[in-house]
Design a protein that fits this description.
- By secondary structure, the protein is mainly alpha-helical.
- It is built from 24 helices and no strands.
- The longest helix has about 70 residues, at about 345-415.
- The two termini are about 55 Å apart.
Length: about 525
């Protein structure tokens, strides 16, 4: 214990010689950042509350048979998921649209289009979102829906401005945002919301001082929680325009706390605060806040927020290198001081040796973790490529099927109208259409798969004994055995799913899989795992 005490005294002495890298921060900001740290540590609690609300809504949806009630519950789930998990929000929007299709009296198609534009905007699909808005007939909208329409237009244009690095393009989107802001202002009933909009315009026109006065007045009127978020965030923008870093940190932290407590995952305040703290030298908090933002952006599928975070990660990495250099400098000073304080060397030698061993172990662990991370990154990159290729091909195939079905329907309709009943029944009973389409579908699958894994056939055969290897015929890309194991390579391992996909019986698929395992060159029990690694 005496040796440890001497070690602590030595470290404090060294630190007294080392320069401070963190600038002074006001007591108010230290308190609010501490509160934000506590909020982040309890993020699972706030998200758990939202999950509970979602589960309750889902249970009510599954139990109700009333179409109007279903419509309202789907709308509530759409809103709950909108800034929390965009994919699920889009799913319940589609369910809501299905209810509306069954009973048009439940709502308006324009509302569905605006909803879809909003969730596509959250997902970063801005051009698709704008296309949905273009399909809305603005002349037919009543005032509440029209206000919602203009609000979503403003939001999408604002995101487009954030997404556009080029100055001229950014200005174009900001000007459009300003126009939509004017339209929204004319229809707003809430005085607080009107004030926030006016403050945004003042900031845009270089009158940030006036914006601060307006927003400060808003806070005295006890705004609702969601209104507070907008007020706090706009205040941070105003202080940004004024160059007031202390106040910007404070209001960004306030915004981030409310974002987390309302359990939204699509937000901007926390990553912007991370950038600001990085610039102030608080690297540890910046990294922690950025990591939290990354987790939430990925979980929400908010592409713009994800890109904002990943764009900043390399900067953090360079900062860590700089931090290591400072730590090396500190180490040199430590060694110099140890040499001067040679009297303490004998007491501290054992402690220093243990510390160096721990450091070596940490570096080995870090090296191993980096290698594992690289493997995971490679797998994620390949998975992303697979998803991208197959989503595009799937959409193209769906559109093609719709066109062919429409053509087939019209042909049947013509035969029916011409009273050619025999020909009509002949076409209906014929399976040639399905056989041709299945054949084309498999050809498209084979081509897509071999685009991703051009050496699959050769690599697969290397896993088999020489006399058990299989090759497609000259006119084929893949045969049945290869197609089954191509699906397994893509992660479809369930025999029922494979049988359904290929149109075979379960027994047939089991037979092919068993036959291929028996031809395996290595361990037969791990044959399919080896295929998935190709």
């Amino acid at each position: 214990m005496e040796g440890r005490k001497h070690l602590y005294i030595l470290i404090l002495a060294i630190l007294s010689f080392c320069p401070s890298f963190l600038p002074a921060m006001s007591e108010r900001n230290l308190r609010i950042l501490s509160e934000l740290d506590q909020t982040i540590s309890q993020k699972a609690v706030w998200q758990g509350e939202r999950e509970t609300r979602i589960r309750m809504l889902k249970n009510r949806l599954y139990k109700t048979m009333d179409p109007g009630r279903k419509y309202l519950l789907c709308d509530s789930l759409f809103i709950e998921y909108l800034h929390y998990q965009a994919d699920s929000s889009l799913h319940y929007l589609n369910e809501k649209a299905a209810c509306l299709a069954a009973d048009p009296a439940l709502g308006s198609k324009a509302g569905i289009l605006i909803n879809r534009s909003e969730v596509l905007g959250v997902m970063g699909m801005y051009f698709e979102a704008l296309q949905e808005l273009h399909n809305v007939n603005v002349q037919e909208l009543e005032e509440p829906v029209l206000a919602y329409y203009y609000g979503v237009c403003k939001q999408i244009e604002g995101w487009m401005a954030d997404y556009t690095p080029e100055a001229e393009g950014k200005k174009k989107y900001l000007d459009r945002t300003d126009l939509y802001r004017d339209s929204v202002l004319k229809m707003m009933d809430s005085e607080i919301d009107q004030t926030v909009m006016k403050a945004e315009r003042l900031i845009l026109h270089h009158q940030a001082d006036s914006a601060v006065r307006l927003l400060t007045g808003c806070l005295e009127k006890s705004p609702a929680k969601q209104q507070k978020i907008y007020v706090y965030y706009t205040l941070s923008d105003a202080y940004d325009a004024l160059g007031d870093v202390e106040n910007r940190i404070y209001w960004l932290a306030q915004t981030a706390i409310l974002d987390l407590k309302t359990a939204v995952r699509e937000y901007a305040a926390l990553q912007r605060l991370a950038r600001l703290l990085y610039e102030q030298g608080d690297l540890e908090r910046a990294y922690r806040y950025l990591n939290c933002s990354m987790e939430d952006a990925v979980a929400c599928n908010a592409r713009l927020r994800f890109l904002e975070v990943t764009e900043f990660y390399p900067i953090i990495d360079r900062a860590y290198v700089a931090k290591e250099n400072r730590e090396r400098l500190m180490m040199h000073r430590m060694l110099l001081l140890v040499s001067v304080l040679a009297v303490m060397l004998i007491v501290l030698l054992s402690w220093l040796w243990i510390w160096m061993r721990k450091l070596s172990a940490m570096r080995k662990e870090l090296y191993t973790a980096n290698r594992e991370l690289q493997v995971v990154n490679d797998q994620l990159e390949q998975t992303g490529k697979i998803k991208e290729v197959y989503i595009v091909r799937y959409l193209e195939r769906c559109v093609s099927y719709l066109e062919k079905l429409e053509h087939y329907r019209r042909l049947l309709e013509k035969l029916a109208m011409a009273s050619k009943i025999d020909e009509l029944f002949k076409m209906i009973r014929s399976e040639q259409f399905l056989r041709d389409e299945r054949k084309k579908f498999y050809a498209e699958f084979d081509k897509s798969f071999l685009d991703l894994f051009p050496n699959f056939v050769e690599d697969f055969n290397l896993l088999l004994v020489e006399d058990g290897r299989i090759y497609p015929k000259p006119h084929e890309l893949l045969n049945t055995e290869l197609r089954i194991f191509a699906l397994i390579r893509l992660g479809v391992t369930d025999t029922t799913q494979i049988a359904h996909f290929l149109g075979y019986s379960l027994a047939t698929v089991y037979s092919y899989r068993s036959k291929m395992r028996n031809r395996a060159k290595g361990d037969k029990d791990h044959f399919e795992q080896d295929v998935m690694k190709l």
